[in-house]
């Protein structure tokens, strides 16, 4: 059985995952109208889908543990970006924010001696390590490329390879 405070924390994470899905969907839509960014577009659509899966896992867990998962209202995400680098910088900032939130809930689970929730959240801890590494790698690549159009072409072509095995 989830405590009321744990249920609230997990529901806040449901909202964060939903916001992530929306933010990456907006990034995909923005990329889709930029010339030649089909790979980036597909990447962000896939990221959006993954975040929705993360949200659904949380909803299922909350309800299975005797809580009540709340489907949250969402604010409008950022819709346009100054550049591809700006979009990926926002991607990294967002992933760091999600990691911080997960870490706070892990700490709370340990404080409450809620080992079932702690165990469940370990998947998210590992996932966030991977997501931050990916976001940092892509930001580093874009920093190296700068405004070089041939580099941007290769970045767009190769981005799907950065999803890693099983992603």
TrEMBL record:
<keyword id="KW-0408">Iron</keyword>
<comment type="function">
    <text>Iron-storage protein.</text>
</comment>
<dbReference type="GO" id="GO:0008199">
    <property type="term" value="F:ferric iron binding"/>
</dbReference>
<keyword id="KW-0479">Metal-binding</keyword>
<dbReference type="GO" id="GO:0016491">
    <property type="term" value="F:oxidoreductase activity"/>
</dbReference>
<dbReference type="InterPro" id="IPR009078">
    <property type="entry name" value="Ferritin-like_SF"/>
</dbReference>
<keyword id="KW-0560">Oxidoreductase</keyword>
<comment type="similarity">
    <text>Belongs to the ferritin family. Prokaryotic subfamily.</text>
</comment>
<dbReference type="GO" id="GO:0006879">
    <property type="term" value="P:intracellular iron ion homeostasis"/>
</dbReference>
<dbReference type="GO" id="GO:0005737">
    <property type="term" value="C:cytoplasm"/>
</dbReference>
<dbReference type="Pfam" id="PF00210">
    <property type="entry name" value="Ferritin"/>
</dbReference>
<feature type="binding site">
    <location>
        <position position="95"/>
    </location>
    <ligand>
        <name>Fe cation</name>
    </ligand>
</feature>
<feature type="binding site">
    <location>
        <position position="51"/>
    </location>
    <ligand>
        <name>Fe cation</name>
    </ligand>
</feature>
<feature type="binding site">
    <location>
        <position position="128"/>
    </location>
    <ligand>
        <name>Fe cation</name>
    </ligand>
</feature>
<protein>
    <recommendedName>
        <fullName>Ferritin</fullName>
        <ecNumber>1.16.3.2</ecNumber>
    </recommendedName>
</protein>
<dbReference type="InterPro" id="IPR001519">
    <property type="entry name" value="Ferritin"/>
</dbReference>
<feature type="domain" description="Ferritin-like diiron">
    <location>
        <begin position="1"/>
        <end position="146"/>
    </location>
</feature>
<dbReference type="GO" id="GO:0008198">
    <property type="term" value="F:ferrous iron binding"/>
</dbReference>
<dbReference type="GO" id="GO:0042802">
    <property type="term" value="F:identical protein binding"/>
</dbReference>
<feature type="binding site">
    <location>
        <position position="54"/>
    </location>
    <ligand>
        <name>Fe cation</name>
    </ligand>
</feature>
<dbReference type="InterPro" id="IPR009040">
    <property type="entry name" value="Ferritin-like_diiron"/>
</dbReference>
<dbReference type="GO" id="GO:0006826">
    <property type="term" value="P:iron ion transport"/>
</dbReference>
<dbReference type="InterPro" id="IPR008331">
    <property type="entry name" value="Ferritin_DPS_dom"/>
</dbReference>
<keyword id="KW-0963">Cytoplasm</keyword>
<keyword id="KW-0409">Iron storage</keyword>
<comment type="function">
    <text>May alleviate iron toxicity in the presence of oxygen.</text>
</comment>
<feature type="binding site">
    <location>
        <position position="17"/>
    </location>
    <ligand>
        <name>Fe cation</name>
    </ligand>
</feature>
<dbReference type="InterPro" id="IPR041719">
    <property type="entry name" value="Ferritin_prok"/>
</dbReference>
<dbReference type="InterPro" id="IPR012347">
    <property type="entry name" value="Ferritin-like"/>
</dbReference>
